[in-house]
Write a structure and sequence with these properties.
Length: 458
């Protein structure tokens, strides 16, 4: 793969960026705050409201529960350390598709890109759009028939927002992220002032006669919904070719956003434990709404419902912005359907890939209609990709030690190894506890092989 200077950067007076793809026609318009808010938008969605009950069920102990959320943040940070080095080396569109292609093998990069674009990104957009459609239908007392049309409309509108320029999509994303962070901070600050909770619940030891003692196996399974809630921590790497000064801003965006998200998640879980006894939290599907009702009465559920809708729409918009960069990067290498590499000459955005993603999402909505919003196979696929990233990091350190690295992963080689082993342990626990979902993710990954050989023969 040719390594050269970024012509568009040089033309604008910016310094040469090592590792940039000279064929890339996208423009570096994203600032550091844009990149941070992009990660926050992808991470903080509806998961923090719907997964804590499941985590409490698997580890019914406040200390173990908070430890799981803290470990999720630390594991994500360990992965971010590796991705920061890889992103600095290859500040290109496509994220780990590029890293695996360069560090492992082109087929490895293709399979991860294939799974990410068609299953993870398009599937996540369909899921989020369907959730938003269900909320709107419930609010306006419409027939369930309207869920899919509303979800399709949301998908198309969000896609259109991201076409004029990457800055347009970033501005919409920044606004949504600021609203998210502000709403969570206000909720966590007001909760203890309203009363109705008990701070001792955060530190209590549950009665063994009412709740089973937590186990290491349960803790491992609990990491699945926790890590699902942290998914998106590497979002900025997918738009690395559009971030200004990526060698500096890309690592900071990963670390800064993860610090914000981990703090928000720990604060929210403390509020849940303050509001609800562990026995109630275990049986709660929507911990956010249940806690809000304790503090604010019936209106609390309505307020949380509105926040969930805003949060879902924000995550959806950020996901719509990211996904096309994978197809665009693969198309530049001839490993995607023809035409997806086209950039609108006036907008300088991957318009073709944006509409391909929108069409795939609409087809998913029409075929599946009630697409699930939280899927274990998505988490499993991300775990596989994360482990592959670590392999790419080690191989590149060994095979290309002199390649410019604006950032070098802190704690190498120990921290990446710990991350790999921990991720592998969680993946094995998921295979044991969720074999069907893991098999589905593996089959979706392997489904890309025939297409890879078709594209390479083309």
């Amino acid at each position: 793969m040719a390594e050269g200077s970024e012509d568009r950067g040089a033309a604008s007076g910016e310094p040469e960026i090592h590792g940039a793809d000279p064929r890339d026609e996208l423009v570096r318009e994203l600032t550091l705050p844009d990149a941070i808010y992009l990660v926050v938008a992808c991470v903080v969605g509806a998961g923090i409201f719907f997964t804590p009950g499941r985590v409490a069920e698997l580890v019914p102990d406040p200390t173990w529960m908070l430890a799981a959320w803290l470990l999720g943040g630390l594991l994500s940070l360990a992965g971010a350390l590796a991705n920061a080095e890889l992103g600095g080396m290859f500040p290109r569109a496509g994220g780990n598709y590029v890293y695996l292609r360069e560090g492992v093998h082109p087929v490895a990069g293709f399979l991860v890109g294939w799974l990410s674009f068609f299953a993870i990104f398009a599937g996540t957009i369909a899921a989020l759009a369907a959730v938003a459609g269900e909320v709107i239908v419930e609010w306006f007392a419409l027939s369930s028939f309207w869920v899919v049309p509303i979800a399709i409309a949301i998908t198309l509108v969000s896609s259109a927002i991201n076409i004029p320029s990457v800055r347009t999509g970033a501005r919409a994303n920044n606004l949504m992220s600021i609203l998210k962070i502000g709403a969570i901070v206000v909720f966590c600050a007001m909760a203890p002032m309203m009363g109705g909770g008990d701070v001792s619940r955060i530190f209590e030891v549950p009665n063994p006669e009412r709740l089973a003692a937590p186990t290491l196996a349960g803790f491992g399974l609990a990491m699945s919904p926790v890590l699902f809630s942290y998914l998106g921590w590497n979002s900025s790497v997918y738009v690395a070719s559009e971030i200004k000064n990526p060698g500096r801003n890309l690592p900071i965006s990963l670390f800064g956003a993860l610090a914000i998200c981990t703090a928000l998640y720990l604060a929210m879980n403390c509020v849940y434990l303050y509001a609800l006894p562990m026995t109630d939290l275990v049986d709660t599907v929507d911990a956010g709404r249940a806690s809000a009702r304790v503090f604010f009465g019936p209106i609390g559920g309505t307020l949380v419902g509105a926040f969930v809708l805003i949060s879902v729409l924000g995550t959806l918009n950020a996901t719509v912005l990211l996904g096309p960069r994978i197809a665009y990067s693969m198309a530049l290498d001839g490993l995607f359907f023809g035409g997806a590499e086209r950039v609108n000459p006036g907008y300088r955005t991957p318009v073709a890939a944006i509409w391909v993603q929108a069409i795939v999402t609409v087809l998913i909505l029409l075929l599946l209609r009630n697409f699930p919003s939280a899927l274990d196979f998505t988490t499993f696929a991300i775990l596989l990709a994360s482990m592959a990233d670590i392999v790419a990091l080690y191989r590149l350190r060994q095979n290309e030690p002199d390649r410019p690295r604006p950032y070098r992963a802190w704690g190498y080689p120990a921290i990446p190894a710990i991350y790999f082993v921990a991720t592998l342990a969680i993946a094995l626990t998921m295979i044991w506890g969720r074999p069907l979902e893991c098999l589905t993710g593996t089959l979706m990954l392997l489904a890309g092989l025939p297409f890879y050989y078709t594209f390479t023969r083309r």
